[in-house]
Design a protein that fits this description.
The longest helix has 31 residues. The protein contains 11 helices and 2 strands, in the order ββααααααααααα. The protein is mostly helical. The N and C termini lie far apart (62 Å). It has 2 domains: 69 residues, Arc Repressor Mutant, subunit A, CATH 1.10.10.60; 145 residues, Tetracycline Repressor, domain 2 (Orthogonal Bundle), CATH 1.10.357.10.
Length: 228
């Protein structure tokens, strides 16, 4: 049983005049098993995403995914209990890519330094990445639509992550005097709400041909509001 592990042992290390930590074989075996399981999970998600792009989410079956991986459907179900879980995993990976790119911008690692520059870059990049992933590709748009219906928790966590980055930038701007806000949390929520049309995959698609401000106009408006 995995939870009945031997305690770590120490033995003298004559070469360095100290002691050496010996990892029990049980722990090493568990680490290897976990790495192997994670590798299989990633292969399943990669294959599922490719099939979702090629033939669409609704037309892709677990059997299709298993066939591509040369494994049985039962083996796929060892790692994901349903097609819904696979979709949640694919959506989470795509959202994580946006989060990683956004984090670099928010932390100033991409060249933008002032709060205004970072906020502008973050919002513009988020819009571009969501358009590239979900709008330009009709089949991926289908997948994300299902994900929002069936895996709302995944979308909620993503929204909270991005919202936290926006709040951090607003807080920096308020601290430096660049933004004139007294309630950072509320101001950040207002930014997220105002920009929803440009970052929410469903709204981007629905509003594409409707009258409204351009991306740059909306970002200008948001930043002007923070500076007022």
């Amino acid at each position: 049983m995995r939870w009945l592990r031997r305690p770590l042992r120490w033995r003298p290390n004559d070469e360095y005049g100290g002691e050496e930590l010996i990892t029990p074989m049980n722990d090493v075996t568990d680490q290897i098993e976990n790495q192997a399981e994670n590798s299989v999970r990633e292969r399943i998600l990669t294959t599922a995403e490719r099939l979702f792009r090629e033939i669409g989410y609704h037309k892709t079956t677990v059997a299709d995914i298993a066939r591509e991986l040369r494994m049985s459907p039962a083996n796929v179900y060892r790692f994901f209990d349903s097609k819904k879980s696979i979709n949640a995993g694919v959506a989470r990976r795509l959202m994580s890519e946006v989060e990683r790119a956004s984090e670099k911008i928010a932390s100033g690692k991409t060249g933008a330094t002032s709060a205004s520059e970072r906020l502008r870059a973050l919002l513009a990049n988020m819009h571009r990445m969501n358009c590239d992933r979900y709008i330009a590709d009709a089949k991926m748009h289908e997948m994300v639509a299902v994900a929002m219906e069936e895996n709302w928790d995944v979308c909620t966590l993503h929204g909270e992550c991005i919202g936290g980055m926006i709040a951090g930038i607003v807080a920096d701007g308020a601290a430096s005097g660049e933004f004139h806000v007294t309630d950072v949390a509320t101001s950040a929520l207002c930014v997220s709400t105002a920009f929803m049309r440009f970052c929410h995959p469903m709204l981007i698609a629905q509003c594409a041909n409707k009258p409204g401000p351009t991306l740059d106009q909306m970002i200008d408006f948001i930043i002007a509001g923070l500076k007022a």
